[in-house]
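Structural prep section.
Before we set up the soaks we want a predicted structure of the protein with pyridoxal-5'-phosphate in place, mainly to decide which crystallisation condition to try first. Input record follows.
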Amino acid sequence: MSCDFLNIANSGVQKLHPYQAGKPTDELERELGITNIVKLASNENPLGLSDSVKVALQKELSELTRYPDANGYYLKQALAEKYAVELQQVTLGNGSNDLLELVARAFVSCENEVIFAQYAFVVYPIVTQAIGAKAVVVPAKDYGHDLDAMADAITNNTKLIFIANPNNPTGTFLEQDEIKSFLTKVPENVLVVLDEAYFEYASADRRGNAIEWIKEFPNLIILRTFSKAYGLAGLRVGYSISNPQIADILNRVRQPFNCNALALKAAETILQDEKYLQESIKLNNAGMADLSTFFREHELEYIPSMGNFITVNVATSGDKVYQELLKEGVIVRPITGYGLPNHLRISIGTQAENQRFKQALVKVLEL
Ligand SMILES: *Cc1c(COP(=O)(O)O)cnc(C)c1O
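Run finished without errors. Recording the tokens verbatim:
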């Protein structure tokens, strides 16, 4: 091979590193030959798939020789109804990650700047760099977004700003009035993606409803997902709500069948399953209280979280503790790659899974 293909890849792509996903349970089983593994590494829903979805998917199997509805009509209609918006404001994605990329591809060029916070979700730098645009990373404040500094970072070249609320991997939360006052400082030709992947977990009296602001701020794009509180991570379905013109533009760049038939059916079904959602939230609240108390009792500093995960400072190498926990059959997420080498991110599991994690951590850290 005489051609170094890396040299001919787009310059932004040359400097990219592949996304490091949480370690799959099967992989650890193969490596260590152990079973009964607990995975608390990818912010997945520990409740398991809803029975209502199982039934709906079974019925859908016989339709799988057909292409899915390219417009996702029924799901969009259900979302539009739920959030009191026009159907034309909804865009579906192969997970909300798909939408992060669609927004960047549709609007950002290599002359542009994209602003996001230090410790922000790793997909933001990936989609920015893949286009060859300049990433403007604004230092965090108390592990969260410093919105004043982010507003100050806007230049004539800024095209897009990513904000995750609650943020992953830190779980930090911005109040509604903070975000709103930030939006008033952003020029209308700069898009703001408000990534609310953990919206359903955030406290009901504080999370508000940013969808209502789209009329006042037409440059605002809200992203939500079925991967977390709705428990459909494996099916890949997320959505954006924006002003109709932005939705029309996203619709031009997306792949025609970016949401598969099972994903559409499952999402339509779970949207009606209020009981599953409430159970997810209840389980998460209980686990969050449990782990927070545990960390306090053992004097481990943690970042208060509004998501379905909690990030803790283990006061030593997070990578090492991660490796030791693997030997105990517990998979968590080291976040050295985010610039937090002494922290681990723990997804909230079932009561039994949280218990396994606590026991393993006590053993590994000799607490
Ligand atoms: C999990 C997550 C998403 C959602 O990803 P999907 O592609 O919908 O599975 C989006 N943003 C953040 C910050 C996340 O943590």
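Observations: The chain has a mean pLDDT of 96.
Flagged for discussion at group meeting.
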